[in-house]
Here is the input.
Amino acid sequence: MTARQRSWIKPAAIGALVLALAGVGYAGFGQAEQAPQVTFISIAGDKISTADLRGKVVMVNFWATSCTTCVKEMPAMVDTYNKFKGQGLEFVAIAMQYDPPNYVLNFTETRKLPFTVALDAGGDIAKSFGDVTLTPTTFVIGKDGSILKRYVGEPDFKEVHAILQKALAAS
Here is the structure.
């Protein structure tokens, strides 16, 4: 192979790589990740599946009573729920597998949490949502079941409210 023949190989290979990556990016464009099909069991004993919540905007918050950020953000979670529940927002707070059920029940009752609180006793729900291990982790799920946003750590509630307003207004 001559030097002249080799001179075009590198740019051609780079061009092919760019086109391949662009194709992969384009193929995935607009296809949002779907929330997993799971069933929550609330501390009241009610069974609620993600299929039951289809057609509604849902926030799913993984938390623990031992998580200081979770405890700190909970009043803002309550405020967010109260602000948007009349527009159709559903909210499920899922206590992590390691959280003692009596602590969760006590926290829920003393703080008068107005939304559904569920226990993830086997850790299966956290695994289904992408193996959630860090708390707090919050998902905003659209009416079509797609995950609109995932927050690890305390979310920017101004941003959360903007996402919720848009999602709740969508038909």
About this structure: Residues 8-29 have pLDDT under 50 and may be disordered. The CA atoms of residues 138 and 151 lie 5 Å apart. The chain has two domains: 1-31, 39-169. Helices lie at 3-28, 68-84, 101-110, 124-128, 157-169.
